[in-house]
Each structure stands twice: as C-alpha cells, then as structure tokens.
Amino acid sequence: MTHQYDEFVKFANFLADESSIIITKYFRTKINIENKEDSSPVTIADQNTELKIRELISSKYPSHGILGEEYEHINTKAEFVWVIDPIDGTRSFIAGHKDFGTLISLLHNNEPVLGIINCPAHNERWLGIKDHQTTCNDIKVNTSSKEKIEDSYLFTSGQFFYEPFLKKGFEKIKEQSKYFRYGGDCYMYGMLASGLIDIVIEDTLKVHDYMALVNIIEGAGGKITDKFGKNVNIESDGSLVASCNPKIHQQLISIINS
C-alpha cells in the first residue's frame, strides 16, 4: 500500500470515529423522525452525521467528490470520490436495535478501494482495502468455507423483492438453506465477512448502501455481485448477492437466473 493509501485508511477510520460520537449521542433517545420523499425515515442523527463527515472530507481533500444519502452529490467525476451512508439501518436505529451502522467507501476512478462498516452499538468495525485481507477491530477475518446452500445461513434485510425473478430465485434459495432470517442491515455483511453467516441477498439498494461492502466481502474471501453475477459499481441496478466464496456464489446466481 502506498503512503497515500495509508493516509486514506487513517482518515477513513477517523471519519468512523467521529460518526460514532454523534450517533451514540442520539441512540435510544427521543428524537424527531421525518419521512423523505421515498417514505424512508430520516433523523437528526443521520443528517448531523453526514454533515460532519462531509465537512471533514471537504476540509482535508477539497478536490475529492462526495456521494451521500442525505444531501446532494459533489464532484462525482473526481478521481477520488467518498461514498457515505451516515446510518445504514435508520429504522433499526430509531427502534433502539443495534444492527445499524455507518458505511464509508472510497472510490478511485469509480473503483472501490476502501470500505468501512462501523457499528458503534456493537463496538465493531470492519475495514476492507483492495488487495488486502479484511479486518474487524484490527483482527483479520475470513468468510466461511461452506460450499452447499443446504449448509448455509441466509439473511436479507426485508421481505420485499420488487424484481419478480429475483424474488422467485430468493424463495428457492430460502427453501434450500439451513437457516434463514430477516433483518440485519449492514451488520449482516460484517457477520458474513467474519464467517458467521454465509449468504445475503437484497434488492432495491442505492449506491451508498452497497459500495463500502465490496472490499470488505472480497477481502475476507467472499463474493459480491448483482443478481446477474456482474461486479457492482455506482451504476448497478440495486440488486445484491453476497456470499462466502465463489463456488457457492455461482450456485446462487444460477438459481436466481434459471
């Protein structure tokens, strides 16, 4: 890793530290909840966290772009672009459930080179760097070695799949899996990277929901693509299939597209 990338990693961890300070101040307190145009909830914790991260990025790297959830995108054609989701799992956060987290990613020429899942309520942070092994709290982690769907633990955030054939494929995989659970937000991707679960399938995600996950899952030995098996990027369709290794991943993609 170059000195420049060492600096980016240090800065990304600093952003995660700062986000934790703001988020934990509001967690399990009575705060006002608003609904955005898409009916998804937003709180002052989401807004203040993203504003703080944006302020820090713009101060440190004024030439870098910023793509966030709550506010307008800035300079997204830049060589380096930060992709941020201040609170992934706002509904969990509002309900006092701990599986929410902050997602931070850095793109270099539109390619993800760094990703963080920071879950302050669990005191866990996954860090993925391109061509490096993923860590959780500075300890190297690996995905599981399971190769059969019938041995696997399957997770998804919600019960709604808007692509009919993705829903049909998901139901087939669900029937074959050993264990299934709804819910988990970004925390379930951390569990996948740490070898605790084996498959995550989701739909209708936005770029800030998935970009940070790429380096984390791949750096732990897993595979992450869209429903067609294509690598995800800033123009992906929002479907996401993440699994513990390429062998089981191919089985999943085949079932979804059969």
UniProtKB/TrEMBL annotation:
This is Histidinol-phosphatase. It comes from marine metagenome. The keyword NAD does not apply. Belongs to the inositol monophosphatase superfamily. Its cofactor is Mg(2+). One of its GO terms (biological process) is L-histidine biosynthetic process. The keyword Nucleotidyltransferase does not apply. GO terms for molecular function: metal ion binding; phosphatase activity. Coiled coil: none annotated. PANTHER family: 3'(2'),5'-BISPHOSPHATE NUCLEOTIDASE, PHOSPHATASE. It holds the Pfam family Inositol_P. Keywords: Hydrolase, Magnesium, Metal-binding. CDD domains: Bacterial_IMPase_like_1 (cd01641).
